[in-house]
Specification:
Blueprint: H1 3-15, E1 22-27, H2 32-45, E2 51-56, E3 68-73, H3 78-88, E4 93-100, H4 108-117, E5 122-125, E6 131-133, H5 139-146, H6 151-154, E7 176-179, E8 188-194, H7 204-216, E9 220-228, H8 237-240, E10 245-250, H9 265-268, H10 273-285, E11 290-294, E12 305-307, H11 312-323, H12 326-343, E13 348-351, H13 354-360, E14 365-367, E15 387-391, H14 397-414, E16 422-426, H15 431-439, E17 450-453, H16 460-465, E18 468-471, H17 481-488, E19 493-495, E20 512-513, H18 517-529, H19 531-548, H20 551-565, E21 570-573, H21 579-587, E22 604-610, E23 613-624, E24 627-635, H22 644-655, E25 659-665, H23 669-677, E26 681-690, E27 695-703
Parallel strand pairs: 1-2, 1-4, 2-3, 4-5, 8-9, 8-11, 9-10, 11-12, 12-13, 13-14, 15-16, 15-18, 16-17, 18-19, 19-20, 24-25
Antiparallel strand pairs: 5-6, 7-10, 21-22, 22-23, 23-24, 25-27, 26-27
Helix pairs in contact: 3-4, 7-20, 11-12, 14-18, 17-19, 20-22
Length: 705
């Protein structure tokens, strides 16, 4: 600016009674920690100007910088605050007004007063401390920023409205193929499509997929197709132990406004021509007979089985009931329309619970719930203390909602009452990225008694040190793996109704249920103060997990589903009309016992039938409470080496609880190896047990619980 212009500017402002040098004013609103960070940043951005901080008197802390002047206002309406600001700045010219905008409405009058004082000069900050100049000529972007839309998305325009836009969605053209275990002619081939690589086991979906695929690999060769995101590390070795091939495709970078498409945006995020092409080509070249698609958002890829890890439209229904906004209604409408149309394209749909199966409302639904590794998650004695544990990856937005519910509404009710109480939170990989996306704030408020961890490779030590496991979930579908892990570790669980839905738990018997802040806080008080109740709940929960949620049992369901779709034999209860065929198969099986087939019907007997022809049978009985025995097993010669014996034994395991015994000829090495693969162990010897020909019998036992 020339000396003449500087002189004229100074003269004009002095005639108006204003200081020619513009000042910067920061308005302290919302979260005090964020507000202080905003003040420090604006001082660093404009260091050569005088800075003022405006606050409501006695409601916020004084800024730490001695170079900043403080203007205290008395609380009141926006107009009342504006009149105070006019008096305070009557001789000053405001060049920039920094204002923090967070979802809370308590400081709305002060924010409005800032607009009145310096229209066109407002530099808005959001909870992530992103900043944007609010201007009338960019009113749409300004409105979106105030609504909480991240800065990198407020300028996005849909392709159908602005075909000339430069910030397009990017679809990577690369892929990576990893070779796993060798293929076998005895195993049929199945492809599985996933939105992520299921290792490490950093969240419930990965735990489920890893364990079920490992169990399914006992009978099938599995080709896994998975999306990768950014530079996230991949640890392929554990998965390659049981998968024949793993194909990794980078996830597309979707750059369209969330509101702008008829399909849910999560569906567009996984639309990849590269994945579709490599999936189709690999299926053709390797004669893959069946495709299972994991998660609703991948449904457009098609396949035979769609796994609904949660009923997604039910999740958005819960969100809409809480928010009641146009955006939440639009999300609900899109998901409900898309999900219902997708279900009919699949031969089978897998639900996590009977509740979810009912919500889906289609005849081809099958229930395979989440499970837990009962061998890995073994009970450990509880140590005295007041230690709370919450495990929930922030990548799944209901866990962010749950964390905020507990820390903002429940924790203040119990924190001072129990000064020794501490909370440990496992928030999964990169939690702050997901926190900002779900909450609109930069980070949770800090508390010295809350330990916030990221991904933890082994959570068992955390369960062992905990006295109470929290599941404060307000929005949920499916079944929670974290509840199952706590049950297996014999730790009492305090949960909301939806947090433990679909698990068959009973309030006051195997879990403590509370659905609002007051009752949840009451549950914390009661359970932390009553060790005998915690012990009773945890032991009942462990027994319930043993009976219903073993991965070995659920893996048998997964294999049975695939076998059914691939035209394998159907297993059903035996009838009197089957006795002749049972006798014929038994006669053709010299390694089998020689029992009268008529006696099988007085106990339990299952037969495997394909196209009207019997291919095998298994006879069993209950010999005591918690003990069962397999009496005989035989497969027709033409149906052998097709894993039919495995399926028959697994079906009995599904129907039994406790220990299961069987005898096998000492010379029958193939049967003994099969039984060991199924989890049986040799526990005894019965000399001369078999006749025709006479031979010793090896006693084997499976401890299913």
């Amino acid at each position: 600016m020339t000396p003449l212009k500087l002189f004229l500017k100074s003269l004009i402002f002095r005639l108006l009674g204003k200081d020619p040098e513009a000042v910067v004013v920061s308005f302290v609103t919302g979260d005090q920690t964020l507000a202080r960070a905003m003040v420090e940043e604006i001082r660093a951005l404009v260091p050569d100007r005088r800075h003022y901080v405006v606050r409501i008197e006695a409601t916020s802390a004084r800024p730490s910088s001695p170079h900043t002047s403080v203007v205290d206002l008395t609380a009141g309406s926006a107009w009342h605050l504006y009149r105070q600001l006019r008096r305070a700045f009557r001789h000053l010219r405001v060049g920039q007004a920094a204002v923090l905008f967070t979802p809370d409405q308590a400081d709305l009058p002060l924010r409005l007063a800032a607009f009145l004082l310096a229209p066109g000069k407002v530099l808005a900050y959001n909870a992530s401390l992103e900043r944007y100049h609010l201007r009338l000529r960019t009113w749409i972007a300004s409105w979106l920023f105030l609504r909480g839309v991240p800065l990198d998305r407020i300028l996005l325009r849909p392709w159908w409205l602005c075909p000339w836009k430069k910030d397009r969605s990017a679809i990577p053209s690369t892929h990576k193929i990893l070779e796993g275990r060798p293929l076998s002619e005895r195993r049929r081939r199945v492809a599985v499509l996933s939105p992520y690589f299921p290792y490490p086991l950093s969240h419930g979906g990965a735990v489920r997929m890893f364990n079920l695929l490992r169990e399914a690999a006992r009978q099938f060769d599995i080709f896994l197709f998975a999306f990768t995101e950014g530079d996230e590390p991949i640890e392929p070795a554990p998965v390659l132990e049981f998968c024949a091939k793993v194909v990794l495709v980078p996830k597309p970078r979707y750059r369209e406004p969330r509101w702008s498409s008829l399909l849910p945006p999560e569906v567009h995020e996984y639309r990849s021509p590269v994945m579709r092409e490599i999936l189709d080509r690999t299926r053709r070249e390797n004669s893959i007979e069946l495709l299972q698609t994991e998660y609703t958002q991948l449904a457009p890829y098609g396949g035979d089985v769609l796994v609904e890890h949660d009923v997604t439209h039910d999740l958005y229904r819960q969100v809409h009931e809480k928010k009641r906004s146009l955006a939440s209604w639009w999300d609900l409408w899109r998901w409900r329309r898309f999900e219902r149309r997708s279900l009919g394209r699949y031969r089978r749909v897998v639900a996590m619970s009977a509740k979810d199966a009912g919500l889906l409302g289609v005849p081809q639904v099958r229930e395979i719930p989440n499970g837990v590794d009962l061998e890995r998650f073994r009970p450990a004695p509880e140590r005295p203390g007041q230690r709370l544990l919450f495990i929930g990856s922030f990548r799944h937005f209901p866990n962010v909602v749950a964390y905020r519910f507990f820390t903002e509404e429940v924790w203040p009710l119990v924190r001072e009452e129990f000064p020794e109480m501490k909370l440990t939170v496992v928030a999964g990989p990169d939690p702050m990225i997901h926190w900002r996306a779900a909450s609109g704030t930069k980070a949770p408020p800090r508390d010295e008694r809350i330990r916030l961890l990221e991904f933890v490779q082994d959570v068992r030590p955390l369960y062992e040190e905990a006295n109470l496991v929290l599941v404060p979930t307000l929005v949920s579908a499916g079944t929670n793996v974290k509840v199952l892990e706590a049950m297996a570790m014999e730790r009492a669980v305090l949960s909301t109704s939806c947090g433990c839905a679909g698990l068959g738990l009973e309030h006051g018997v195997s879990v403590w249920i509370a659905d609002d802040a007051q009752s949840f806080a009451g549950g914390v008080r009661h359970l932390i103060s009553t060790s005998s109740l915690r012990l009773s709940l945890s032991r009942a929960a462990r027994r319930h997990a043993e009976m219903n949620f073993s991965w070995r049992t659920l893996g048998a369901r997964q294999r049975a589903l695939w076998s059914e779709l691939l035209g394998a034999a159907t297993i059903r209860e035996a009838m009197a009309s089957d006795l002749e065929d049972i006798g014929a198969i038994q006669a053709l099986s010299p390694e089998a016992a020689r029992w009268a087939p008529e006696g099988y019907l007085t106990n339990g007997c299952l037969v495997a039938v394909r196209e009207g022809r019997m291919e095998g049978f298994i006879a069993y009985r209950q010999i005591a409470d918690g003990e069962g025995e397999i009496l005989n097993l035989a497969v027709a010669p033409e149906a052998r080496r097709q894993a039919l014996a495995t399926r028959l034994v697994e079906e009995v395991i599904l129907r039994q609880t406790g220990s299961l015994f069987l005898e096998v000829r000492a010379s029958n090495a193939a049967a003994r190896n099969l039984d060991k693969k199924l989890g049986f162990a040799e526990v005894g010897l019965r000399r001369g047990y078999y006749q025709a020909p006479p031979e010793d019998g090896i006693v084997m036992r499976l401890q299913s619980c």
